[in-house]
Amino acid sequence: MTGLTLALSKGRILDESLPLLEHVGIAPAGDIDRLLRVPSTRADVSLVMIRPADVPTYVEHGAADLGIVGKDVLMEHGGSDLYEPLDIGIAQCRMSVAAVKGYVAPRNRRLRIATKYPEIARRFYAARGEQVEIIKLYGSMELAPLVGLADQIVDLVATGNTLRANGLVEVEKICDISSRLVVNKASMKMKHAAIQHLIDAFRDADAKRVRAS
Ligand code: AMP
C-alpha cells in the first residue's frame, strides 16, 4: 500500500488545519462533519477525523501514517513511539497555571490542581518539589477554582479571554504550545519518499503562512 492516511484532530485544530492542507494541495473530498474517514482531493492521501487525545495512538499503531496534533496532547501522552518532524505553527497557545485573582496559597494542606492534563501538571509541580493533589477534569477547568474544587488550574490559554471572563489570572506559563506533524516510525521507513515530500510541503506552507501574516 503506497497511499498515506493522515489523522486530523477534530475541533479547533481541524479548523486551522484545513487552510494549511489546502496549501499542501489536500482538501477533504467528503463531509468531514459527519464522516470519520474521507478521501481527499489527492488520490494518494486519505483523511481520518479523530479526537485529539487519540491521534498519537492511531499514529503509533500505524492506523494512520501521519497526524496533526497539539503539543499539549503529545506531552500528556508521554514517551511517544512516533516521530515529530515539524512544528506546523497552528493553534498556538500556552499551557499555564491560573488561579482566582488575589488568590493566596493555603498553608495547612497541599495545593489542589484541577486539569485535563494530569501528567503535565504532575511533572511541572514535581520539578519544583511541590507536593500537590491533582484533580482530573474533562472540561471547563475555569469553574473549579470558582466553586472551591481547586486552588489552581493547569490549562491552555490563547487570548486569555476565558480566564478574564471568569475572574481568573494567569499565575505562570508552563510552556508554549502549537500543533505538530507526527509520523509513524515504520511508515517513515516504508513510505519515506511520499512522507518526506509531504513534510517538505507542510514546511513550505507554514513558511508562506508566516510570511503572509
Ligand atoms: P482563550 O480564551 O482564547 O484564552 O482560550 C482559552 C480556552 O480555549 C480554554 O478553554 C482552552 O482550553 C481553549 N484553547 C485555547 N487554545 C486551544 C488550543 N490550541 N487547542 C485546544 N483548546 C484551546
Overall form = elongated
Bound heterogens, unique: adenosine monophosphate
Q: Determine the CATH topology of the largest domain.
A: D-Maltodextrin-Binding Protein, domain 2
Strand elements, count: 11
Poorly predicted spans: none
> What's the number of structural domains?
2
**Which CATH-level-2 architecture of the largest domain?**
3-Layer(aba) Sandwich
N-to-C span:
38 Å
Strand content: 25-35%
Overall pLDDT: 95
CATH superfamily of the largest domain: Periplasmic binding protein-like II
Q: What kind of sheet is the major sheet? A: 6 strands, mixed
Structural class by secondary-structure content: alpha/beta
Structure description:
One of its GO terms (biological process) is L-histidine biosynthetic process. Belongs to the ATP phosphoribosyltransferase family. Short subfamily. It catalyses: 1-(5-phospho-beta-D-ribosyl)-ATP + diphosphate = 5-phospho-alpha-D-ribose 1-diphosphate + ATP. Pathway: Amino-acid biosynthesis; L-histidine biosynthesis; L-histidine from 5-phospho-alpha-D-ribose 1-diphosphate: step 1/9. InterPro entries: ATP_PRibTrfase_cat, ATP_PRibTrfase_CS, ATP_PRibTrfase_HisG, ATP_PRibTrfase_HisG_short. This protein is of the alpha/beta class and 213 residues long. The protein folds into 2 domains: 123 residues, Periplasmic binding protein-like II (D-Maltodextrin-Binding Protein, domain 2, 3-Layer(aba) Sandwich), CATH 3.40.190.10; 84 residues, D-Maltodextrin-Binding Protein, domain 2 (3-Layer(aba) Sandwich), CATH 3.40.190.10. The protein is 33% helix and 31% strand. It is built from 8 helices and 11 strands. Strands 2-3-1-4-11-5 form a 6-stranded mixed β-sheet. Strands 8-7-9-6-10 form a 5-stranded mixed β-sheet. The relative contact order is 0.20. It binds adenosine monophosphate (AMP).
